[in-house]
């Protein structure tokens, strides 16, 4: 049995065409079913639904053999013990620093001021500001980061941006582009050794579907 960990929503939706390329069809709609283990048209393949941030953990500890997860989540997790053969080029967005239009971020940076930054992505934010030599106090949040500067709790945020609509709706402006983000395939190293043929078949089908070469194990 091959177990594939996905999160509900955009990762699940955008992985479906890749699964189809591997001849795998998920037999239940996660938006309609309360089941966390979904059967597929292949007896030897099942999908488990977990929180987006838990996908690397399930694959690391063998709860799943393969997973699909954002580069953001992978960096925060650390990626220990995970084989990352493929950029799937799905769920594309970028990580950015944003601040209210009234906050002169560049001036604060130039003057060496201490900046308070709210984010769910503390590892990415810490590394980014450390590389720039900017002094920051980080406030860890689990969602709705945009609210932090609006309530006076933080000067700026580090968050994902796609269309920019969320920032605009909350009167925030992007002031730094940190990195491009897309989702990766992650594989449990031991599972790859024990179940090489079926896992390779999935990796190769995904690679062909996204038109990219795989990274050797
Ligand atoms: N607006 C967006 N456009 C494109 N991709 C995005 C966007 N927001 C997030 N992503 C990518 O999709 C992944 C999954 O996001 P999703 O919103 O489904 O989970 P989440 O709500 O961030 O996670 P959790 O449920 O654990 O809090 C993210 O890790 C990121 O890589
Ligand atoms: O630039 P945009 O296209 O507006 O996208 C950016 C938004 O997308 C993500 O949230 P998400 O859509 O995952 O919402 P959620 O955290 O409430 O699930 C991210 O945290 C931003 O808030």
**Number of strand segments:** 11
Structural class: alpha/beta
| CATH architecture label of the largest domain | 3-Layer(aba) Sandwich
Helix content: 25-40%
CATH evolutionary superfamily of the largest domain: Periplasmic binding protein-like II
Bound molecules: adenosine-5'-triphosphate, 1-O-pyrophosphono-5-O-phosphono-alpha-D-ribofuranose
Name the CATH class of the largest domain.
Alpha Beta
Radius of gyration: 19 Å
How would the global form be characterised? elongated
Q: Mean pLDDT, rounded to whole units?
A: 96
The CATH topology label of the largest domain is D-Maltodextrin-Binding Protein, domain 2
Number of domains: 2
Counted by DSSP, the helix tally is: 9
Biggest sheet statistics: 6 strands, mixed
The strands making up the biggest β-sheet line up spatially as 2-3-1-4-11-5
What series of H and E elements makes up the topology? EHEEHEHEEHEHEHEHEEHH
Describe the structure.
Residues 51-206 form the ATP phosphoribosyltransferase catalytic domain. This is ATP phosphoribosyltransferase. The structure is a single chain. The protein has a six-stranded mixed beta sheet. The protein folds into two domains: 2-91 and 182-210, Periplasmic binding protein-like II (D-Maltodextrin-Binding Protein, domain 2); 93-180, 3-Layer(aba) Sandwich (D-Maltodextrin-Binding Protein, domain 2). The protein has helices at residues 10-21, 55-60, 71-77, 105-110, 122-132, 147-150, 165-169, 189-194, 196-210, and strands at 2-6, 37-39, 45-49, 66-70, 82-87, 93-100, 115-119, 136-140, 156-161, 172-181, 183-188. Helices cover 33% and strands 29% of the residues. It contains nine helices and eleven strands. Residues 7, 9-11, 51-53, 70, 72-73, 91-93, 160, 162, 181, 183 line the site of adenosine-5'-triphosphate.
């Amino acid at each position: 049995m091959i177990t594939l960990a996905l999160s509900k929503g955009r990762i699940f939706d955008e992985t479906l065409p890749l699964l189809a390329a591997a001849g795998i069809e998920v037999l239940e709609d996660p938006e309609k079913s309360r089941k966390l283990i979904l059967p597929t048209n292949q007896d030897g393949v099942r999908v488990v639904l977990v929180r987006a941030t838990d996908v690397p953990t399930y694959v690391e500890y063998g709860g799943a053999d393969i997973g699909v997860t954002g580069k953001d989540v992978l960096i925060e997790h650390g990626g220990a013990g995970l084989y990352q053969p493929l950029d799937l080029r799905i769920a594309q967005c970028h990580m950015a620093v944003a601040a209210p239009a009234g906050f002169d971020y560049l001036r604060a940076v130039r003057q060496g001021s201490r900046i308070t930054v709210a984010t769910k992505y503390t590892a990415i934010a810490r590394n980014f500001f450390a590389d720039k030599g900017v002094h920051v106090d980080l406030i860890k949040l689990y969602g709705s980061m945009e609210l932090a500067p609006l309530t006076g709790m933080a000067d700026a945020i580090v968050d994902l941006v796609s269309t920019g609509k969320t920032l605009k709706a909350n009167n925030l402006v992007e002031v730094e582009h940190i990195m491009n983000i897309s989702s990766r395939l992650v594989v449990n190293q031991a599972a790859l050794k024990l179940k090489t043929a079926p896992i390779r078949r999935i990796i190769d089908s995904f690679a062909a579907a996204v038109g990219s070469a795989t990274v050797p194990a």
